[in-house]
């Protein structure tokens, strides 16, 4: 999803305010936003918040094979997740140019500055090393994204402890935190990143710009320093030509910022280790939740009472059945008759009446119907055969009478018709 750009009016108002030395969050041009840093209850996790920008970092480690070029050095990988939750312009599982630049700068500040002793991550030269992975997830974005991500990653690395191992002849034993104490990483220094905005070709400096302010500026410069006043990285986002005085001014501001934040990180890690050494589980990210949120375990939630409501008198038209009064009643037995209330005489009488009705209302089955129909067919066939025999006898008599010479043919027919007995009589004779 594309983010709508700033309008001309908004850009003009922001630039006019910056040139007059004012900002919309009531800061001066050389003032930083408040930093909130929290470490989790699990080792190697941290959340950093700078203004409305929020980043979470988590560190993990696993055993892997080293490269042939560096057989006795561990590996540090950095992965960044730009979720759409932070900015609607981000796409899921797609970093884009912005994400790739963020990964490259984090690798430049953390890995290439050699702040971590990678040789201490070697277990067996040429066969086994520790592969440390730093997962950086952007939760919210509102300017100074690199500063927040770098601070969260450094704090998570300081808070992380790898499992303890012991070398055997043919294998390596990895111990849990209950068997042997985990080992923290060997960190030489903590590079702290600072983003400084440039306005009017570097004549004006805007420290820690927000997202809208960064869209109105001419460019920015990123300076990474440690508390020893060493410059670990320097990156310029635009092609502005800066003088040495302008760069020195930016570096001085970044050094002051690095000293303050290094003290904050050290104090937080020290407090966490003291709590763990006293066998107390730290609160972790639960500190970031608002205190107004009530849970079932808090005392305030137990004191909450439901509002008092007035009960109206029940009307007489309601049914007498009250489901709330019934205790341990089977819902399937509603409307059924109990066994004690059944009378044996009534049951016998009902059974007798049903038997009588069934006997009186016996219907003819299908087999009986088929037998009756077969008998009727046989009777009809016999009658048809008898009728055929009678017709044949009559024809023979007519032929014998026509052969006589003294009687004409016409008279013989008439005689036959007159003297012919009825068919019913012939059938009766044959039956007899």
Molecular structure report:
Keywords: Cytoplasm, Nucleus, RNA-binding. The radius of gyration is 53 Å and the shape is elongated. The strands form 4 sheets. Strands 1, 2, 3, 4, 5 and 6 form a 6-stranded mixed sheet that branches. Strands 12-11-13-14 form a 4-stranded antiparallel sheet. Strands 7-10 form a two-stranded antiparallel ribbon. Among the domains are: 207 residues, Ribosomal Protein S5, domain 2 (2-Layer Sandwich); 58 residues. Strand 5 and strand 6 form a beta hairpin. 38% of the residues lie in helices and 19% in strands. Helix 2 packs across helix 3. It is of the alpha+beta class and 432 residues long.
Helix content: 25-40%
The geometry reads as: elongated
Strand content: 15-25%
Per the CATH scheme, the topology name of the domain at 8-186 and 258-285 is Ribosomal Protein S5, domain 2
How does the helix and strand content classify structurally? Answer: alpha+beta
Note the total helix count. Answer: 10
| H/E series | HEEEEHEEHEEEEEEHEEHHHHHH
Number of beta strands: 14
The level-1 CATH class of the domain at 8-186 and 258-285: Alpha Beta
End-to-end C-alpha gap: 111 Å
Uncertain segments of ≥5 residues (pLDDT<50)?
A: 292-306, 317-334, 336-342, 402-420
What composes the largest sheet? 6 strands, mixed
CATH homologous superfamily grouping of the domain at 8-186 and 258-285: GHMP Kinase, N-terminal domain
